[in-house]
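Re: that chain you flagged

S.,

Sorry for the slow reply, it's been a week of failed gels. I finally had a moment to sit down with the sequence you sent. For the record, here it is as I used it:
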Amino acid sequence: MSAVNSKLICRLLVRRQNVVWCIIVLAAFACLTMLPAQADKDAIGISISRLDDLAFGDIIPIGGAPGAVTISPDNMRSSSGVVVVADSEHKCAAFDVVGSKNAHYTVSMPSSATLSDGFGHSMLLDNFTSNSDDNSSHNLKLDKPYPQSDMGRDTLYVGATLNVGQGQAAGRYSGTFSVIVFYD
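Prediction finished late last night. Pasting the structure tokens below so you have them in one place:
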């Protein structure tokens, strides 16, 4: 089993003509951890490390109403109750998973995480999803080449939904969440 702790950072800024712009960046600061694997995996550990951060782009709430922005594992962005600026950068998080060649693994993600600005305001991040074929089991395979012949790798893509509250206060929001991978 290997875990990565990720830090979430979000910043809401008040800009031109009382329009609230939301620049949301979830910076996933990953730590590489290798733990002993099961005996049937030839004692090769499984590890996860961050490749890319989850970013929601610029968001303008409509009249202070609540809304949500979702980034899918295939990098698609959708929203409800908020206007998403079309030309702003958005991306799903990406992680490199390395372990025993052709081994199957499972990823465990949280049900939710809270982002806080340190002044009593918060936003909920939930509905974490990955690029697995069956998102309920997160069964993935280390089938991409790796420089060592007995190892394989996979790229894990993660998306989530950011819930912007009614009258969401402008500010800088942060929090953490963990992603854990382990052999099946």
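What I noticed first: Confidence is low (pLDDT under 50) at residues 8-41.

Talk soon,
D.
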